[in-house]
Structure formats: structure tokens, C-alpha cells
Write a structure and sequence with these properties.
This protein is an alpha/beta fold. The protein has 2 domains: 151 residues, SPOUT methyltransferase, trefoil knot domain (Alpha/beta knot), CATH 3.40.1280.10; 55 residues, tRNA(m1g37)methyltransferase, domain 2 (Trp Operon Repressor, Chain A, Orthogonal Bundle). It contains 8 helices and 9 strands. A 5-stranded parallel sheet has the order 2-1-6-5-7, sandwiched between helices. Strands 3-4 form a two-stranded antiparallel sheet. Strands 8-9 form a two-stranded antiparallel sheet. A hairpin with a 7-residue loop joins strand 3 and strand 4. The longest helix is centred in the C-terminal third of the chain and has 19 residues. The two termini are 26 Å apart. The chain binds 6-chloroguanine. The site of 6-chloroguanine has 12 residues, from strand 5.
Amino acid sequence: MRIDIITVSPELIKSPFEHSILKRAQDKGKVEIHFHDLREYAINKYGKIDDYQFGGGAGMVLMVEPIDKCISKLMKEREYDEVIYMTPDAQTLNQQTANLLSAKGNLIILTGHYKGVDQRVRDKFVTKEISIGDYVLSGGELAAAVLCDAVIRLIPGVLGDETSALTDSFQDNLLAPPVFTRPAEYKGMKVPEILLSGNFPKIDEWRHEQALKRTQLIRPDLLKGESKDE
Ligand code: 6GU
């Protein structure tokens, strides 16, 4: 997979890709990340990339021309499966979307800032718009990092233990069951007996019950198949 991230703050978004799983995925050749500073596509020598909105109102809007130049250049070089725009006024990211995107080849991710981008960018170039939740961030960079993390860890071969992504919360629309490690007893707090039993069918059953219970309590909307995030 190749991901091209277009941003006005490359420095803000780079660091999550330099550590842990996201770094390992790149080292293993599973994903290539390229950052594009929108300012390099500015409309003048002063680096202008945004302007006041027509009709009045507070906040600057990213202009269509710099984004057009950057995306058009990339599209001349290769085909892209999706051009994703990170914005709070979009459908919310969920595990299903992450799964679908993890099977793609080339992605462009455009991150907004200020009041967002000129609508003509969204109409002409963007194929998918994604929010990461019902709250407002200062810019789309952190949201793009969240999206990339959720997607990249699902690419086959990225996680060492192939089964671990499958048992994540949400993979089956259930929250994950509780987990324990040594010691079996700490300050009088005991690990559930069943987990020490070696009876793996029973353990699976217990984990499923616990997952259901947790989901019922914390996210009953998931059980009804009508996630808040859809
Ligand atoms: Cl994608 N961008 C911004 N600026 N705020 C957000 C978001 C995205 N998702 C949730 N809040």
C-alpha cells in the first residue's frame, strides 16, 4: 500500500509514523507513506494557500488551486483507489471502513485546516470523506494519523501475531473481553479460575459471554447492529 498525505503541517503528523507498528509496517515494506506540504503548491511566492470565504464569515478556507495542483501531480504519477478528505462533517470512521481501506493499493489523504477546503475540491477530487468522531479537532492531521493507524495494522503481515487483529474490539461488533496476566493473584485480587483451567473451548465461551456483557453495558447500540458511528 502507498499513502500520500497532503497537509499544511507535515511536522504535526510525521511522528506517529516513526514509532512502533506504523514504523515496522514501513520497514517491512507493507506500506509507503509520503507527505506533501500544501505550501509547496501555493499560488504565489508568499506561500498563499487559503483565503476568506465568499459570503462572509469567520475563518480561512483552503483554496482549490494548491490542492488541485498537488492532487493532479500525484494522479499523473499513478492511479489512486480513493481520495479521502478528513473532516468532522462526514461519516464516522469504524472498523468496517478500516477493513475495506486496508485492502486498497494507493490512497490520497487530504487534511483540512481552518474552516476546511473549498467545496469544489470535495466535488471534483474527493471520493470518500471521513470523520473520527463527534467533536472538533484543530485540523485533520491527527485524524489522518488515527485513520492510518487503524488501516495499516490490518494489512496482512503487519501485526506479528496474525490472530490478534481478529480478536480486537469491534472486529465482530463486540467489545473485547477482559484480559489478565501473571501473577494469578495480586493483593487478594484473583484471576478468574476459568482462565487457568486449560479448558480452551470453555475459555472461548467465557470470553464471548464477557464480551457480550461488556457490550450490553457500555455500547448496547453495537448489539442492535445500529452503531452510533454509522
Ligand atoms: Cl477528520 N477533522 C477535524 N478537524 N476534526 C475532527 C475530525 C476530522 N474528526 C473528528 N473531529
